[in-house]
Amino acid sequence: MSEIKQISLSEVQKHNKKSDLWIIVHHNVYDVTNYVENHPGGIDSLVEVGGQDSTVGFEDVGHSADARETMESPKIGWLQVQDGGFWKGVLISSIATLSVATGVGLYLEKALAIPHKTPYSYPSHFKPSIHIAKPITKVKGYLQPENYQKVPLIKKEKLSSNTHRLTFKLPKDDTILGLPIGQHISIRAQIDGKSMYPDGLLTGKYLEHLQLGDEIEVRGPKGAMRYRKGMVKEMGMIAGGTGITPMYQLIRAICEDPTDNTSVTLLYGNNTEEDILLREELDNFEKKYPENFRVHHVLSKPPPGWTAGVGYVTKDMAKEKFPGPSNESKVLLCGPPGMVNAMKTNLMELGWQKPRTVSKLPDQVFSF
């Protein structure tokens, strides 16, 4: 597998002609020169965004999963992150806290849900018990997969030097977000009167400066992961920075269900100890549910006296901590593109199946 390189924005901007055309979509850099003539949307629509970030137009068209998978061929790299920090993407999950860009957290108030069984019908999130006295009442989730809906910012907290938690409110106190475990949502915002998708480097700057009462728009659910009990017996997770977000959904669902015997091992990489998101919750799950969950923290800049992992998550760590590849095991990945791509290669060398460009639920190696 060839190494995917980081490419600076200034380099991408040089390639803006029909005969030499690069574009950016969700951090990824694509050389679409040979695709121009065959583009269903016409030549002009591609040339117009040459050398630029075309995420807005790409999402507005609503490309299918198959269309996204075919984009692997022209991908030549990903957009270089200027500060060298962890992944700067955005992923809002059914759990409360998330860090994006400069460390902005997002929370959709009263928004917890468990997987639905019929479209748009969701029970309220609850801690499962073995004995349920009566059927769970289903309610319609707030999220709509095709339409963006507004949610206002009602609370903003600074948790650390680079982490904020933002709380957004759903329309009513009993409104359910309707987000299946393992899935995420998209956000959109009005910037200078235009609909923008605050992805990548823009995300943190935009979200960090939101004021109380400001609104963002949300749409979903999105993603191929829909966790169900008994999916596998053993699950390895590799997360970097904000990549803990979808992992935590699954960890909580597994640990809080006394009938779920899935064994989960998490390798969680961060720069500093302060950067570890949800640390108290993760450590508490490990103490309370040792048969279900184990976490191994890895820091690239550890403090004096740090006794856990040092450096970066490696192939040797995965080999030592994770189960071997089988029909009863799975590895989940979420984090910085460099880490995810490196670990995909490492896992293949350990005998795991080659990951798809766009992950699907049955895959041995699933990347959010």
From TrEMBL:
Keyword Cell division: no
Entries under InterPro entries matching the protein: CBR-like, Cbr1-like_FAD-bd_dom, Cyt_B5-like_heme/steroid-bd, Cyt_B5-like_heme/steroid_sf, Cyt_B5_heme-BS, Flavoprot_Pyr_Nucl_cyt_Rdtase, FNR_nucleotide-bd, OxRdtase_FAD/NAD-bd
Compartments, as annotated in UniProt: Mitochondrion outer membrane
Pfam families: Cyt-b5 (PF00173), FAD_binding_6 (PF00970), NAD_binding_1 (PF00175)
Domain Cytochrome b5 heme-binding: from-to ranges: 4-80
GO molecular function: heme binding; metal ion binding; oxidoreductase activity
Protein family membership: Belongs to the cytochrome b5 family. Belongs to the flavoprotein pyridine nucleotide cytochrome reductase family.
Annotated membrane topology: Single-pass membrane protein
Cofactor requirements of the protein: FAD
PROSITE patterns: CYTOCHROME_B5_1, CYTOCHROME_B5_2
Keywords: FAD, Flavoprotein, Heme, Iron, Membrane, Metal-binding, Mitochondrion, Mitochondrion outer membrane, NAD, Oxidoreductase, Transmembrane, Transmembrane helix
One annotated Gene Ontology cellular component of this protein: mitochondrial outer membrane
Positions with a binding annotation for FAD: T245
Name recorded for this polypeptide: Cytochrome b5 heme-binding domain-containing protein
Originating species: Monilinia fructigena
